[in-house]
Specification:
303 residues; alpha/beta; Arc Repressor Mutant, subunit A; D-Maltodextrin-Binding Protein, domain 2; nine-stranded mixed β-sheet; 44% helix
Length: 303
């Protein structure tokens, strides 16, 4: 009879298509993962994984079994969550995923409120790439995530929370910084800094650059919003920053000038997401409301 651990290894191979990365994802050595998969194949009497020099790919029957295994693993986690909910609705640890372009500037107020109102509740916060966290959510590795739309995945409850402006900033010495009026034509050819391509903010930057005829710099990709702001402040290029970052105490607009081009329409929609029919769905919805309310307060403060 397959064990849950063996099924977890199979799902990891399905996701990573590589033994080394799969072993790292489930926190075991590669030989352990390989040996347990061979045991599973021997017990079932079928080949589940095609082992190749360039990686590992599931056989057709392996893919079918991995899909069923994924559902079993999520159901097992839901059973544990349901037991926790039965003991106390707002107690325990929520594994909370958030994009680094949002979490540090939005969550401090939410965390302090939850600590005040729900003393038994803990948030285990993991920052990461939204697409990767959506996969971890579907696999049961995270309980809920907050990040920019679109969020892709099956059997997920997605709750849009708020719309956030994406703001164009420059060095105070940039030719556009002191203009009383900046037109869309003035942006044509302007060089723009961004994060690496895995981030939604990078993709949104690509769209805005195409819309306004700006040039996205590929040689100076920032590692954080702070690095983008600092590079823009030195005059390396313009930067597109979320409004919450500019409004927050952790971030801010020190060293840069906010541009307000005529017709500028940069924005993103932030949503919360958890698995459909999750036992703690009401708890996740409550946390999502706190996140939305915190964002509204921060963005309503005059600057």
């Amino acid at each position: 009879m397959p064990t849950f651990r063996q099924l977890e290894y199979l799902v990891a191979i399905a996701d990573a298509q590589n033994f080394r990365r799969a072993a790292a994802a489930v926190h075991v050595s590669q030989p352990t993962l390989s040996q347990q998969l061979r045991v599973l194949e021997a017990e079932l009497g079928i080949v589940l994984v095609e082992r190749q020099l360039a990686g590992a790919h599931l056989t057709p029957i392996g893919r079918d079994i991995a899909d069923r295994a994924r559902k079993l693993l999520v159901e097992r986690q839901d059973i544990c969550d349901l037991a926790s909910t039965a003991r106390d609705r707002a107690i325990g640890t929520i594994r909370f995923g958030v994009t680094p372009t949002l979490g540090p500037y939005l969550l401090p107020g939410v965390i302090s409120e939850l600590a005040r109102d729900h003393a038994g509740l803990r948030l285990y916060i993991r920052e990461g790439i939204p697409d990767e966290q959506a996969l971890e959510l579907a696999r049961g590795k995270l309980d809920m995530i907050v990040g920019p739309l679109p969020i892709h995945g099956d059997a997920l409850s997605i709750e849009p929370l708020f719309r956030e402006d994406l703001v164009l900033v420059s060095s105070p010495l940039h030719p556009l910084a002191n203009r009383a009026f900046v037109s869309a034509d003035d942006l044509r050819g302007a060089e723009v800094l961004s994060l690496d391509p895995r981030h939604h903010l990078h993709r949104q930057g690509v769209i805005l650059c195409e819309r306004y005829g700006m040039v996205l710099l590929r040689d100076y990709e920032g590692t954080s919003l702070d690095s983008l702001r600092q590079m823009a402040a030195t005059g390396l290029g313009l930067a597109i920053l979320p409004r919450l970052y500019l409004c927050s105490e952790v971030g801010g607009d020190a060293g840069v000038r906010i541009l307000r081009p005529d017709g500028w329409n940069g924005h993103r929609t932030i949503a919360a997401c958890w698995r459909e029919n999750a036992p703690n769905g009401n708890l996740y919805a409550m946390i999502a409301r706190r996140v939305s309310e915190s964002a509204a307060r921060i963005m309503s403060e005059p600057r």
